[in-house]
Amino acid sequence: MIRILIAVEVPFYREGLAELLNKSGEVQVAAAASDAESAERLARIELPDLVLFDVGMADIAEAIERLRVLPSPPKLVALAVNETPEAVLTWIEHGVAAYVPRSAALEDLLSILKGVAHEEFHCSPRMAAHIIHRMALLASGSRSGASLIDELSPREHEVLSLLARGLPNKAIARHLEISNATAKNHVHNILEKLRLHRRSEVASLMSESHRRSA
């Protein structure tokens, strides 16, 4: 039996999904959360095998970053993903074990969850081609992340310094007096430009950059 935690904001969507999954006989919903903070707290308490989270939930990206560094982290499954290369690759770079497209039916969802439990990654052939292409581009890159810092814009340098201090997107937005969405976009663009997978890698990259310039 696969134990999962559901993190979905909309009550009827969350409750209906939990009921359907429990009735399947193959999945046990250990807990359900309505926000990112609750999802993180419940994941630490319940220790589920999987966390199934709605990608539209506020602050969920930051919460899953913290869940990934737990001693025994749950596998992460992104729910209701637009099946475009940009959207899928963004969540893959966040460390998800699989994604569930918006068009998926309950049968598809169950298949994906069971696949993740058996260390499988489900995606369409088209998405697989994009993923392989992205990996090839990363493998062919000869420049280090530290040297790529110089190519960031002045605003991205400001965001980068706050990222290195471990600030979440909301705090970055407040500090720079920009919207949360703008801060999130800056963070995503910076990580992509520097070829980083997690925001937690920024601090070590900055340290490397300082050592080279010393």
Q: Structural class of the secondary elements?
A: alpha/beta
Oligomer: single chain
Instruction: Let me know the average pLDDT.
Output: 85
State the separation between the terminal residues, measured CA to CA. 54 Å
**Strand line-up across the major sheet:** 2-1-3-4-5
General form: globular
Based on CA atoms alone, the radius of gyration comes out at 18 Å
Low-pLDDT runs: none
Largest sheet: 5 strands, parallel
- What level of helicity do the residues show? 55-70%
Order of helices and strands, N to C? Answer: EHEHEHEHEHHHHHHH
Number of H- or I-type helical stretches: 11
> What is the percentage of strand-forming residues?
5-15%
- Per DSSP E runs of 2 or more residues, the count of β-strands stands at 5
Any overview of this molecule?
- By secondary structure, the protein is of the alpha/beta class.
- The chain is about 55% helix and about 15% strand.
- It is built from eleven helices and five strands.
- The chain has helices spanning about 10-25, 35-45, 60-70, 85-95, 105-115, 125-140, 145-150, 155-165, 170-175, 180-195, 200-214, and strands spanning about 1-5, 25-35, 50-55, 75-80, 100.
- It has a five-stranded parallel sheet, with helices on both faces.
- Strand 3, helix 3 (about 60-70) and strand 4 form a beta-alpha-beta unit.
- Helix 8 (about 155-165) crosses helix 11 (about 200-214).
- The longest helix has 16 residues, at about 125-140.
- The radius of gyration is 18 Å and the shape is globular.
- The mean pLDDT is about 85.
